Amino acid sequence: MISHFQWKPLFKSRKIPGWSFSFFLHGIKYTGTYNKDGSIDWNGVQPDSSILEDITKQIHELMLFHVYE
Cα 39 to chain center, whole Å? Predict the structure, then answer.
């Protein structure tokens, strides 16, 4: 389960989409960029491929809640 999820816009103008995010999972910090098309670019460590699809879905849900509410 994702914990300590944080996000912030990449640009000062909120009209330009793109957000950076970070979270912890099993004691490991993950960071990335959430793009306007919903794709994710991981910075550094990427979640294991066995859980990547589930983590991606959770990030999409969190971003929909926080950004597009």
Answer: 9
CB 3 within 8 Å of CB 25: yes
CA nearest to 56, candidates 28, 9, 23: 23
Structure tokens of 51? 């859980």
List the strands of the sheet with 28-34, edge to edge: 3-9, 19-25, 28-34, 40-43
- Separation CA 58–CA 66 (nearest Å): 12
Tens digits of per-residue pLDDT, 3-51? 999 999 888 876 678 899 999 999 999 999 999 898 999 999 999 999 9
3-state secondary structure the chain: CCEEEEEEECCCCCCCCCEEEEEEECCEEEEEEECCCCCEEEECCCCCHHHHHHHHHHHHHHHHHHHCC
